[in-house]
Amino acid sequence: MKYTESHEWVMVVGKIATVGITEYAQKELGEVVYVELPKIGSKVKAGDESVVLESTKAAVDIYTPVSGTITAINTELKTHPEYVNHASEGSGWLFQIELTNPSELTSLMDKSAYQSYISQ
Q: How far apart are CA 112 and CA 80, in angstroms?
């Protein structure tokens, strides 16, 4: 897994990246009650707003950490947004994207760098 400073994670298998929010972000956000996901087929660039999460505390934008085309969304979140709370780094993933620029991954943090970042 790779991580962003805005608390998204990305896990790549081949040319497909799965994206979600970190456990740290989920704890800060609180109970997620609504998820607005991107459209399949949308083309996005690294840093674009791609998802809106609404919690009992706030609504936040989630950014895509890599550029590409959205190939899948976690449709379970439409009826069960709480999955983001229970498994934000697992079954609470948000969307998948086919990478157009895999070199962007080099600018992201590995787990140890991210742990250092959030403990500052």
A: 31
**Domains detected in the chain:** 2-102 (2.40.50.100)
Query: How far apart are the C-alpha atoms of 70 and 50, rounded to whole Å?
Result: 10
Neighbours of 102 (CB within 10 A): 13
Do you know the residue count of the chain? 120
- Cβ-based neighbours of 108, under 8 Å, separated by 6 or more: 2, 3, 4, 10, 65
Q: State both tokens at 27.
A: 């704890």
**Position 80, amino acid:** H
Name the helix (H) or strand (E) containing 4: none
Cβ atoms of 6 and 61 closer than 8 Å: no
66: DSSP letter: S
pLDDT digits (tens, 9 = 90+) for 30-73: 999 999 999 999 999 999 999 999 999 889 999 999 999 999 99
- pLDDT confidence bin for 120, thresholds 50/70/90: confident
